[in-house]
Every structure is written in C-alpha cells, then in structure tokens.
Amino acid sequence: MMWGGRGGWGFYFIEGRPATSGRCPLRTMTCFLPWNFHVHTLQVAPLSLPTRSLREQKKRVLGIVARTHTTSRAAHSKMSKWKDNLAPGDLASACTFNSMFLTMAMLDYSADVWASQTHQTAFLVQYVNFKAEMPVFGKVLFGLLLMLPLVIFGMISGVLQFVLGWRQAPIQRHIVDCVEFCTLVFIFYTIVTAIAPATAAFQSACAGPKVQKAACSAAIETLTAKHLLIVLLNIGMFCYPIIKYRYNRPSSLEKVA
Prior knowledge:
By secondary structure, the chain is α+β, with helices and mostly antiparallel strands. It folds into two domains: 2-79; 83-253.
C-alpha cells in the first residue's frame, strides 16, 4: 500500500503475526521512507477491531506513520547540513560568464544562417579562420578557461552532495545541480565530437580554389544545426544559476543550518 504527504510519498507493508496473548492479534507494519533510507517497524492493531470504526482505525494508522515520518526527517536534518546558498555576487559572476559564451554561440549560429541565406561562403570561411586565431579575445578566453576546473569541481561537489546525502536542499536545487553538470559535459562532448569535425568538413569543402557547391551547402547546414544545439545548451547554462538562487535555503532555517 502507498501513502503520501507534504514530505513525499512512502510505502508500507502489513504482515500478520499471531499474538502471544489476548483475543485480537497484532500486526507488524514496516514503513519504508525513501527520503532518508530508514526502515521503521510499528506495532498497530488490525483495522477490523469491533471497538473502533474503519475510519478511526485508518486515522490512527496514518497518524502513527505521520509521526514516524516527522521524527525521521528531524533526525535526518540533524545529521546533514544544508547546501551553501548561492550569493548574489556568485549569481552575477555566473550569469556574466555564461552570457559571454552564449553570445559567442549566437554569433556562430548567426554567421552560419546569414552565409546560408545570402550564399556568402567566402565570408563564412574567413569567419571560421578568424575564430581559429582570435589574437586578442583568444587570450582573454584562455584566461577564463583556466578557472574551469574550479567550476567543474564545484558542480561535481553539488551532485555528490545530493547523491550521497551529504547536504540538504530543496529538490529543485538538487535537480538543477545535476542537470547543470550534465549539460556542461554534453557541451564539451558536442564540441569535440560534432563541432570540430563539422568545421573541418566545411573548410575542406568550401575553402580553396575549387569549391564543391553541393558538399559545401551540406557542410554549412550541418554546422548550422550543431551551432544551434550549442546555443540552446548555453541558454540552459545561463538559466541554471538563476534557478539555484531562487531555491536557496529558506530564511527560516538559517539559524538551524
């Protein structure tokens, strides 16, 4: 059987057991509470006692389960701390960092779309060559990427805090931490396995004295689709810190944490 409340859903199983004395047998009720992985065994009277109605017995059983749930959550709260709140300064830094990469991704996608619509293949070839060098902005980007290991470490820490139960937080905060890390990994995977080969295929088909029009058009379409995917992923990376800031630790629990 299954029951639910404000704290979540749980399952309980009732097994009969003969009584050692008395006219009415007792039953053993085992409650499994998935949010803290504890198993509780309660002794309750069967629901068919002649002295109580079925509704009263149901309220009694649910009351015992609710009290057990509250006690378990309180014990679990004392064992694990809350996740650190995302400070306004950290939110501003994350949004600035992610907006820069989102802007770069939108520029790549816009260049692909414009070259495809106007048939300006030479412009796109020059743009790709510029992206490969970027004499000034490339150095700035390299300096920013040096902080990437710290960002990845923080994301992995947030995921492990949820998976291993090291920290408490609203479920929305836990989900966003996991999705953010998966999105970043998928961005790197897409760049290495899709963007780089598509760019190389575009340069081989569209650059040089002899341009293969059919192969060049197909390469531009492939590159445009991959850049659109990167744009969508970067939009998600921009929104994740805002969602995490929205689901910071409640102010009523500041003293408790």
